[in-house]
Amino acid sequence: MSKVFISWYDGQNHVLANEFFGLLQKHGFDIEYSPHSPHSGINDERWNNWYEEGLPKAINRAEIFIAVVTPSCDGSTWMTIEYEAAYKKFLKDASPALCLIRFDLAEHQVKYQDFYLSSSVHLSSIPEEAVQTLLTFSS
Hints:
The chain has a single domain (3-137), classed as Rossmann fold (3-Layer(aba) Sandwich), CATH 3.40.50. The chain is built from five helices and five strands. It has helices at 15-26, 50-61, 77-93, 114-118, 127-137; strands spanning 3-7, 30-33, 64-69, 97-102, 121-123. The radius of gyration is 14 Å and the shape is globular. The chain starts with a strand and ends with a helix. The relative contact order is 0.20.
């Protein structure tokens, strides 16, 4: 199944995001994700070399990049950096597929560049519908 990179800011603390991640796993997607936020209380050692080594490797392996927007990720610098890395690879190789899923209020402006957003598939905020869309990518 497809290799998916999840860009998140403490997405593991959001009910719908957790449901989405669980459904991705249930449907056989191979998931890799951003390091846990230092605010989460989890000491994620991937931060030690994330931007120099971890992120480039993760983006190169990914077939699908998904930015997961939750209320807590407002203005996340590292999510913007991850989106930029995926977008640059997308422009060069037409991969990974860029996706955005929002689990926040729709009227809240997302702080990503317009060209990232216009190049991305906007997934339904209903986890099952979002996964069904992603399943069509690997058909």
